[in-house]
Design a protein that fits this description.
The complex is a heterodimer of chains A (about 140) and B (about 150). Chain A has one domain: Thiol Ester Dehydrase, Chain A (Roll), CATH 3.10.129. Helices cover about 20% and strands about 40% of the residues of chain A. Chain A contains four helices and eight strands. In chain A, the strands form two sheets. In chain A, strands 3, 4, 5, 6, 7 and 8 form a six-stranded antiparallel beta sheet that branches. In chain A, strands 1-2 form a two-stranded antiparallel sheet. In chain A, strand 1 and strand 2 form a beta hairpin. Chain B is elongated. Chain B has one domain: Thiol Ester Dehydrase, Chain A (Roll). In chain B, strand 3 and strand 4 form a beta hairpin. The mean pLDDT of chain B is about 95. The longest helix of chain B has 14 residues. Helix content of chain B is about 20%, strand content about 30%. Chain B is α+β, with helices and mostly antiparallel strands and about 150 residues long. Classes of the chains: A alpha+beta (about 140), B alpha+beta (about 150). At the A-B interface, helix 1, helix 3, helix 4 and strand 4 of A face helix 1, helix 3 and strand 2 of B. Strand 4 of chain A pairs antiparallel with strand 2 of chain B.
């Protein structure tokens, strides 16, 4: 059976199924604020971020969670209906510089293969440190 | 004011129904850098067996948010929003959300734990469609920082 060009029966635990880099800018954060309705100013105003002790404006955790699963959906042929369960822990902030933005890298690897399908484990890094913990996507391969 | 330790097990009334619009799905899909045609093109979504464009998985948070607002606004819960940090997030799907869905979320606090001076509140929002069928459960753990 083929999923998004991959042969699911040939998958092995440890296989990297997708890898993608994302460049975020302040515009990305404003766009996500509008789309999601999360207008916490720490995501677009440096003064608001520094007033609560942050180094600067940071990306919404839910934005990072939102794009981190997209490489997996692309691998699944674009069908997010194959995503059965998706969880993350927010462990480190992604600071988005006003000029340089932020680059976040996503690596999606097969963690478990069983009758239900696969558990895909995401490694999401910013400045060479992981920003999500226990980022796991349960997918149906049928 | 500390988080109310008696909060665990409390459910809030169902939030007002949320009607999922096609343009909202597209807007959200662009915002999370989605590229699948199923998120944007109704014909592509129909060809894949869906009634209309398919929302990215984390779109469920938009519906969940209305139920979290109930919890945060409850003075008896004792959750100071200024001290809240999002700890964990999870979505368990029966099916994806599609444009045209009328969704209703009902939040239940499943646990309150105290760690050091901080509290961890876990809340589950069960989201059902207009026919009452389960679509997705959204689970958030909120860390509420204690007084410094």
């Amino acid at each position: 059976m083929s999923v998004g060009g991959f042969d699911a029966e040939r998958l092995s635990v440890g296989d990297i199924v997708a890898e993608q880099s994302y460049h975020l800018t302040r515009d990305s954060l404003v766009r996500y604020a509008g789309a999601s309705g999360d207008f916490n100013p720490i995501h677009y105003r440096d003064d608001a971020a520094t007033s609560v002790g942050l180094a600067g404006v940071l990306a919404h955790g839910m934005l990072t969670m939102g794009f981190a699963v997209q490489p997996v959906i692309d691998w699944l042929g674009g069908d997010s209906g194959k995503v059965l369960d998706y969880q993350v822990r927010f462990t480190r902030p992604v600071f988005v510089d006003a000029e340089a933005g932020a680059d976040v890298n996503v690596v999606a690897k097969v963690g478990v293969l069983d009758q239900a399908g696969a558990r895909i484990d995401l490694t999401v890094t910013f400045r060479d440190e992981t920003v999500l913990g226990k980022a796991q996507v349960r997918v149906a391969l049928a | 004011m500390p988080v109310n330790a008696e909060l665990a097990g409390r459910s809030y009334p169902a939030a007002a129904p949320y009607l999922v619009g096609r343009e909202k799905v597209r807007e959200f899909a662009r915002a999370v850098l989605a590229t699948s045609p199923l998120n944007f093109d109704p014909e592509a979504a129909r060809a894949a067996g869906y009634a209309d464009v398919v929302a990215p998985p984390t779109f469920a948070v938009v519906v969940q948010e209305h139920t979290l607002a109930q919890l945060l606004a409850d003075p008896d819960a004792g959750i100071d929003f200024a001290r809240v940090v999002h700890g964990d997030q999870r979505f368990r799907f029966t099916r994806p959300i599609v444009a045209g869905d009328e969704l209703t979320g009902t939040l239940t606090v499943t646990s309150v734990k105290t760690l050091g001076g901080h509290s961890m509140v876990t809340a589950e929002t069960s989201i059902v469609d207009a026919g009452g069928a389960h679509v997705v459960t959204a689970i958030s753990s909120l860390v509420v920082r204690g007084d410094e």
